[in-house]
Amino acid sequence: MATETVTATITAPAVESGRMRMDGTDARYGDWRDDLLRDGYAVVKGAIPRERALEYADKMYALAESFGYGYDRNDPSTVHSDKLPVINEKGMLLNYGACHEDFVWGVRSEPGVVDAFSKVYGTDDLIVSFDAINYGFANRTNLPLNKPWPHQDQDPDRPGFRCLQGLVNLLPNGPNDGGLIVCRGGHNTSEQFHDDIRGTEDRIPAWTKEWYGYTDKGMAWLKEHGHEWIKVEAEPGDLLLWDSRTPHYNVPATKQQDRLAIYTCFMPVADATQEDLKRKKAAYEARLGTTHWPNAMHTGSNKAMRNGEPDKVQRDRPLNDAVLSERAFKLTGIPYIQAEA
User: 3-state class of 3 per DSSP?
Assistant: First the structure.
């Protein structure tokens, strides 16, 4: 790819003063940012034009069909674990270089998506996560059960606004079509919650400190403090955003409409260390995924495992590798890596 040749190093500036603080001291904006401040989540309507979003959805279906296992988007009976690539019970496709498919980078690079994060962070110097894509199939008879898993994606011992998560919705998504559930206003009481409950419960095991699962005791606390769980509805091309402190999870569809989503999370380059950027560069060059943290705190694998054995189909590169624009290539963080003396 021509974009892999870096001809200049960009110095990442300090984060501008326009960054949202999400601590009750922000000004009012008169747009979706006010929803984010109040509720801990927001919907940015039409971040991607509807027709283009539907084109991305078509490519996402085509990717699932490309493995040759028998999945056909027009035949509901083929929504079967044996006829699909390895997708976990939450709907996430994590392997096969899928997070670097051309249509995924197309979504990440959309001006309406990038600009929304720029407004929150007060800078255009951003990096993006190499996060998963999500297939929320409507016909789940032959798929693993997706149980509620309320959680927050932030270390409880590191309070304050640290990360804004997002996903781009590609198909109509109503109240019964599966998708994101959020605990409205939970970000505002997050520190109080953890101070109250810390040391009084058996924590749900987690592979990273940047994940906390809500136990029955935690769920009761949220209810006692007046928090309501909301199913977020969206149209094709809408961008859903939420503060990582906001409790959330996803649910399966109960009607006939699939739910397709691309996770998108950006952060200022200034929040990443040089070591982070080098790790991110290695992940990009190997076409590996990350979590939602754009500083590549953890990187994944392209080796898909099915029933404890390597999947028959293995891909260490996307089916359709992306040719990145200059703006998209900056989102990899590579141009911000400083030359060693």
Answer: helix
Whether the Cβ atoms of residue 249 and residue 167 lie closer than 8 Å to each other: no
| Average confidence (pLDDT) over 309-329 | 97
Domain that holds residue 199: 37-331
pLDDT tens for 256-299 read 999 999 999 999 999 999 999 999 999 999 999 999 999 999 99
256 by Cβ neighbours in 10 Å (0-12 / 13-18 / 19+) ranks as: exposed
Q: Are 247 and 149 in contact (CB under 8 A)?
A: no
Quote the DSSP letter at residue 65.
H
- For the stretch 6-17, pLDDT in tens is 435 665 454 456
What is the C-alpha separation between 202 and 218, in angstroms, rounded?
11
CATH code of residue 84: 2.60.120.620
- Residue 9 belongs to a domain: no
